[in-house]
Amino acid sequence: MNLAAADLIGYLAASLTTSAFIPQAWLTWKTRSAAGVSLGMYCVFTTGVALWLIYGLLSEAWPVVAANAITLSLATFILGMKLCFGGAPRKPHGIGLKDGDFFRHHLTPRLASIEPIVACPSPLLRPCA
């Protein structure tokens, strides 16, 4: 097999294995939760990817460099979110709120539970139930 074909296979493999991290990074960012991410595994994995990147640079194996540079950035991103968010899921600010939930979410429960004296016809001015 010639070098160009080997590099092509390397880049294809790198694209597939690296893109596998995108859904995890997106889900962790979207949910603001890293509950399903093992801190120990990601510490060891991120260190291993960094070493693969150094190996690729020293041996001038450019598919290895390309794949591990991108994978290292994604793994570091996920690891950082694990350290930042921990394991408890949190609702992202303003995402997934239904009509009226904004006020319930931002006002204290005492203020949100106050009933109006007169029924208000506007849905924007009705209290959160």
UniProtKB/TrEMBL annotation:
<protein>
    <submittedName>
        <fullName>SemiSWEET transporter</fullName>
    </submittedName>
</protein>
<feature type="transmembrane region" description="Helical">
    <location>
        <begin position="6"/>
        <end position="27"/>
    </location>
</feature>
<keyword id="KW-0812">Transmembrane</keyword>
<keyword id="KW-1133">Transmembrane helix</keyword>
<dbReference type="Pfam" id="PF04193">
    <property type="entry name" value="PQ-loop"/>
</dbReference>
<dbReference type="InterPro" id="IPR047662">
    <property type="entry name" value="SemiSWEET"/>
</dbReference>
<feature type="transmembrane region" description="Helical">
    <location>
        <begin position="64"/>
        <end position="85"/>
    </location>
</feature>
<feature type="transmembrane region" description="Helical">
    <location>
        <begin position="39"/>
        <end position="58"/>
    </location>
</feature>
<dbReference type="InterPro" id="IPR006603">
    <property type="entry name" value="PQ-loop_rpt"/>
</dbReference>
<keyword id="KW-0472">Membrane</keyword>
